[in-house]
Hints:
- The protein has 143 residues and is an alpha+beta fold.
- The chain is built from 3 helices and 7 strands.
- Strand 3 (54-62) and strand 4 (67-75) form a beta hairpin.
- The longest helix has 16 residues, at 9-24.
- The two termini are 25 Å apart.
Amino acid sequence: MNVTFANTTEEINKIIDLRYDILRKPWQQSKESASDGHEDAAHNAFVQDDKGNAIACGRLQANDATTGQIRYMAVANGMQGKGLGKLILKALEGKAKELKLKKIELQARENALEFYKANTYILKEKTHLLFDVVQHYLMVKEL
């Protein structure tokens, strides 16, 4: 499967649909909460199935001249454990290197800590509790 970077509104909408299904809907959140409105200034990577549906996605944004942040990582139900998250992560890290960023930060959900650790991210600290139930942790990787 190939990772693509979104270039059209249609592609962004497919990504937002996946984000909503995986990251917001299970906690009865609105579809609008699946985007912060900064898609045009970010780099959205995704994988599609043979029907054109987004089945994995993630976003890189530059927080400053040296630090990028990965957000909105999601893999469709039934597709986890097939290496798609790692494909997205490596594509985003490659983009960060192209942009000459020196490190990447992210807020990992508790259930994703081992995934990020396996991809050489370092756990820095426990941070916020999203929707009063989803614990997050700050993780960092030097590039």
